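Hello again,

I reread your note about wanting to compare the complex against the isolated chains. To keep things tidy I'm splitting this into two emails, and this first one only covers the full assembly. Below are the input lines as submitted, including protein chains and any nucleic acid or small-molecule components. They are followed by the predicted structure of everything together. The single-chain runs will come separately.
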Amino acid sequence: MKSVVIGSEGFEIVELETPQPGPGEVLIKMLACGLCGTDVEKLEGRYKGSKPVIGHEAAGIVAAVGEGVTSLKIGEAVVPHHHVNCGSCYYCIKGSPTMCPSYREYNFTPGGFSEYFIVPKFIVERRGIHKIPPGLDPIHACLTEPTACILRAIKRIAVEEPESYAVVGLGAMGLTFTQILRLNGAEQVFGLDINPLRLEVAEKYGATPLNPSTIDAVEKVRDMTGGRGVDVSIIAAGSPLALPLGIRLARRGGQVLLFAVPPHGSTLQHDISDLIVREVTIIPSNAATDREMAEALNLIVNSRIDLRGLVTHSYRIEEFEGALRTFKNGEGIKIVITP
Ligand SMILES: [Zn+2]
Ligand SMILES: [Zn+2]
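Full-complex prediction:
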């Protein structure tokens, strides 16, 4: 089988023997797997948050089950989650499930950009493989994991009944945030990006588009929020400049949801006293649990959100180089790899 893995310099497309599931494991035939910013950062050696495995936004069908697996059958359509938490350690009990030491311990082998991959027993027995309706488009289904991360991030917001939001960065994540915030009834969502195509899509999803390279976005947002600024800014761009902009967009007492991961080693360029004087809170959100996976799947299956419009490009495993090029050029919105 073909597989894209991390090589000594960037990626390598390798021919591997199709793995066989051991006891408790499940073999998945990949049908679609989203390319995530963290995959690109791992290939460039800039992301240190988890093990060097690429491809985690996968959808596929069960190709084989190991001894003792009774919860799944061959041929079932599924969305497997690459990380699950243990549910019983200090972090899990104290409300930090994605900080569970077991959470990043396990992953797909060799990774989601492979014709087949193994889901480990730890994930299988904690029901980390979610069944999906057989007719669901795998390209849509593979967006479950990133959507789940967004749902968890929104739950971490602690402002009472927020009315206004600014989404900084309108890539696939920022645009999904826009859709979900509007679905949840947000009255005012400002979408900020310098890319005109992305601004246009954000407007279609109900955001007020703002290009910070052509206007003073902070002043404009204040003008349109009674002089205050937004209740919540969401950082959905990996640029280290996005966070200081998000802080300036937030109102006094507002919150900044730090979602996109900037390159390893980035530092915050902002007057720290301003955070205290204006009591602005920065809330990071990292990954999602299987509760949000189920909730995200529910939104997708029931067509509450339509993410297919975000998938602008799909590439086969052997065309991976093209996928990376498109990603780095910023031409597309969401890029998906298919077998
Ligand atoms: Zn991802
Ligand atoms: Zn745990």
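For quick reference: The first strand starts at residue 2 and ends at 6.

B.
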